[in-house]
Each structure stands twice: as C-alpha cells, then as structure tokens.
Design brief:
The chain has 305 residues and is mainly beta. The chain is 5% helix and 52% strand.
Length: 305
C-alpha cells in the first residue's frame, strides 16, 4: 500500500511543473465563473463564491483546492467583471492563480451572448525535498522548482432565463519565463489547453418542482474526451438535489440550499469509479455562495446557473 502511494505520487511529481493544470470541480453548474470568463456579469447583481475541495480523501498528498470568485455587471449590464483567486496543492506542488475576467454582453434573440477574456498569473512551485525516496540524497530531489506564469484565456456564453450554453479555453496562452515565448503552449510553458463546452436547461415540472439537466464536455489533446452528465432537481425554489456521472472517473451526489435571497450553501461528494477508489474514500466539496447588491431583492427567480 505504502509503496503504491509513493509510486503514484512520484509519477505525478516527476512531471515537474506540469503536474498542475486546470482545476476540476463538481459544483460548476451553479456558477460558471471558474470555467468561462464570459460568464462574468451574467446576473443582474454581484455575487461571490467560496469553495473548498478535498479530493481523494485518505491519500497522502492528494489534491486540495480553495477558490474565491466574485463577479458582477457593469454599464447597465452590457459588460461584466470577475476576479478569481485559487490555491491548488497536490503532493509537493503548489499553485496560486490570480485571474481577472472581462465580458461584453450583446442582446441576441431571447437571451444574451457574452464574449469574455481572462488574464492573470499563476505562481507554481514544487518542493521536491518533501518527497520520500528510495535513494536518499538524490540530487534530482534536493531542490525547489518555481515559476511565475502569465496566462490568458477566452470564452463565449449564451444565456436566457431558463437555459445556457458556452464554450471556453481558460488557458489559451501561457508564458513561463524559463522558456522561449511562443503561442504554442508546448514551447512557451508547461500548461496545456483545456477546452470546455457546457449547456443546460430548466424544465418546470410543477409549481414547486423544476428539473435542470446539464452537460460539460472536457477535452485536452493528451487525454480522452471526458463528459459530465448532470441532473438536478429544484424543490420550492430553495433546495437543489442532484447527481452527476463523470465518464471514466466518478459518480457524484450534489445538494444545495438557498438559505435566503443572499446566502446559499452546497455540498458535493464524488465516489471514484477508477482504481484510485481502492485507496480513497472519495472526494468532498463544500461551497458557499453570496449574492449581494440592491438588485438581488428584485430578482423573481432563484439562481438556476
């Protein structure tokens, strides 16, 4: 058991600064800010989200993620802004992201089309000295690797009262000062492009029950296409309960409670379906959402997405 965990940890950290890529979340369907910069300002009021994820509980060095995101509208809701701070840790590798989002919203049909940009920096460090090895004193594991990488991303997001669809590339360009600058991420940094396609619809089953199916497609050139298939039910406009299936990865249970028009809380549990599940009791994710501003009290509908 111990040897297996050490071997897997070493295989992850041997990638150096490539170990950290785009953060994986389970409650993104309630706030698309972390996936798509065009989502910024898509509500009539400002909102903030605090999220903690403890992945693969029981593993020494398993991923732990903390995120704070805030966004709101500008200039009569024709533009939006957003800020994201994320702290991600896996094994000896830490990554801190500081990102700013900007979006422009155009009236189109029954909804709006938003186009967004993201810019910021990632501070990444790998302390290889914290690793336990079978060969003490190995020079390859006696240093700390670090880098400050500027990053730029983009996305598009169409939304109406009861449905949405989006496409995004959160990291379109990244530059590691230790490499030569290039629009090709393989040459300019250890980051890799991730492509996301999202969509969802809210069906009124009755006066008190609503059904929201949604999907997320994730693609990265070096990995198989992955899909999240989600279904959530809203009861009395205050309580969400749902489930997701992430292909080749996990089955997820989700609940969210709207305490009042301003405050909501959510929880997700991932049951791992891969071999990792033999050594982990699953993943836990806790979310707190805060919506504020004078327009929040005028909103007739709960926050569907």
């Amino acid at each position: 058991m111990k040897k297996l965990i050490i071997a897997i940890t070493l295989s992850l950290t041997s990638l150096g600064l490539q170990a950290q890529q785009d953060i994986m979340l389970s409650q993104y369907m309630f706030n698309g800010l972390f996936l798509n910069p065009a989502y910024s300002g898509s509500h009539k009021y400002a909102g903030a989200t605090l999220l903690h994820r403890n992945q693969w509980t029981g593993w020494d060095g398993a991923p732990k993620t903390n995120i704070v995101g805030i966004d709101g509208p500008l200039r009569n809701h024709t533009m939006g802004w957003g800020l994201i701070f994320a702290n991600d840790k896996i094994g000896p590798t830490k990554q801190n992201d500081f990102m700013g989002n900007y979006s422009y919203h155009l009236k189109l049909g029954k909804g709006k089309l938003a186009l967004g940009l993201r810019a910021g920096v990632s501070a990444v460090s790998s302390n290889l000295m914290n690793l336990s090895t079978t060969s003490p004193g190995d020079e390859a594991f006696t240093n700390v690797k670090s880098a400050i990488m500027p990053k730029f991303g983009t996305g598009a997001y169409y939304y109406a009262a009861k449905y949405y669809a989006g496409i995004s590339v959160p990291t379109l360009i990244a530059y590691d000062p230790n490499n030569n600058f290039s629009l090709d991420l393989n040459k300019s940094s250890d980051s890799r492009r991730h492509y996301f396609i999202t969509g969802g619809y809210v069906f009124d089953l009755s006066n008190t029950v609503k059904l929201k199916p949604s999907v997320l497609l994730k693609y990265q050139k070096a990995a198989p296409l992955q899909a999240d298939i989600n279904c959530n039910v809203l009861i009395n406009d205050v309580f969400w309960i749902g489930a997701s299936y992430r292909t080749n990865d996990a089955v997820i249970g989700i609940i969210e409670y709207q305490i009042n028009p301003i405050l909501r809380i959510g929880y997700a549990y991932d049951y791992t379906t891969t071999a990792i599940g033999r050594y982990s009791s699953g993943s836990h994710e806790v979310m707190i959402g805060i919506d504020f501003g004078r327009d929040i009290m005028k909103s007739k509908n709960p926050r569907y997405f």
